[in-house]
Amino acid sequence: MIVVMSQEASREQVEAVLRKIEEFGLQTHPIYGVQKTVIGVIGDDKTKVVETMAGYPGVEQIIPILKPYKFASRETHPQDTVIGVSGVEIGGDRVVVMAGPCAVESREQILNSARLVKMAGGSILRGGAYKPRTSPYSFQGLGEEGLCFLAEAREETGLPVVTELTDPRKIDLMCEYADIIQVGARNMQNFVLLTEIGRSGHPVLLKRGPSSKIEDLLLAAEYIIKEGNRNIILCERGISTFETHTRNTLDLSAVAALKRLSHLPVVVDPSHSVGVASIIPAMTLAAVAAGADGLLIEIHPNPNAALCDGPQSLDFETFTGLMSRIRKVAQAIGREA
Ligand code: PEP
Ligand code: MN
User: Residue whose CA is closest, atom 9 of ligand 1?
Assistant: First the structure.
């Protein structure tokens, strides 16, 4: 970190700033220029400098050198993190396909979906048992019963399960049923939830909030990782823009940006990104081409009858066809799927 003193700063002010920084247990390296003095600050935790010294007499600017998301950053962990989930590796050479319905609606619906995901070559089953719905009158999910159906589908097909946790009080229940805990876009900045998941050490799929910057997503990941949990999969799922043709706008540049800034795996959810089934296949293939480590795709045995997100759910035939195209694009860029 560099503290830039203003041109008018007196010698006494520079010395007071040096003393204050050293009181925080940090090292100072002042460079006395003709016009200005700048102070290099070295040490592990520089948050106190940022918090207390921005308005200090004589201080003009504080410039961080390292990223504020210390443990999620590639600066501190240059090699890619590969997360192992019940035999499936996320963040390695293989593009991992996670698919299933938006919500678990019945035993039959999730079992049929799981069989199809398995048959088509998907690796992980998705399905929400607790649904964060905009309206309190919409279907809220089957709750624990839904988790039991997911467990049955997992048992039969061997597919690990990703499902959303909306309430930090249910963390133990979730750890029992979910191979990967999903943090939904609406909860990306639910810091109590993030901290609990961090403490659990359980693999987590962290979705980007619809109005969150890339840096906000990485700082949310930092809440989890700082508790000692490195098993974080970042997920781009579309952001709010002025465009209304699609549900959200898929920010594919976020994939490349996140892969550059962080060592954590990045997956794309084309379903919530665009919200329109006919546009999803194209965006899915684009996500693979852009370097996504995985995909989260909503499918349904009968999209027209879905209790949640039917218009963006792919039917089984479309999904099966899409899987073979995903493989071709993955191969074209030197990966597998
Ligand atoms: C979901 O995956 O079903 C979901 C609710 O997604 P998001 O949090 O991205 O809206
Ligand atoms: Mn959904």
Answer: 185
